[in-house]
Amino acid sequence: MDIETFWQDFKNRHPEIKTDHHDTYAMGSTDENATILAHLIARGIKTATTSAVDLYGPDEPLPFVGEYNVILDGHDQPICVTQTKVVETIPFNQVSAEHAYHEGEDDRTLASWRREHRAFFQAVYQQEGRTFTEEIPCCCEVFERID
């Protein structure tokens, strides 16, 4: 199903939702990872995510409370809809164990969260010709699967 049809079907099932605004994206650095993460979200295991604030483009808005998101798998197929409930900007080295747990990945510990996110951010920062530090501002988002 294409994304717009998926979104319209979602809105038809949820007539209380009056907005047409939604963000659409896949998570992760590979198609395989995107599919795994999308299914963790669909199952309600993954209820949070983290992005590097300073890697957003000048015209790319940060997530905001109340925003709806169509989550895609690694084949750009819509899997579910989430709504953002909390957005906080926190330095990488101050992200909490609770947030790491809600990300729902690996063993859900802060140690594994830091290891995996450090490697991911280091690679992306290097591609951008920038330097990753432990103090980078992170956008920590908590969401709820709606449908």
Automatic annotation (TrEMBL):
CDD domains: ASCH_Ef3133_like. Gene3D superfamilies: Sulfate adenylyltransferase. InterPro entries: ASCH_domain, DUF984, PUA-like_sf. Residues 25-147 form the ASCH domain. Transmembrane segments: none annotated. Pfam families: ASCH (PF04266). Coiled coil: none annotated. It comes from the Bacteria. This is ASCH domain-containing protein. It comes from Levilactobacillus tujiorum. The lineage of its organism: Bacteria, Bacillati, Bacillota, Bacilli, Lactobacillales.
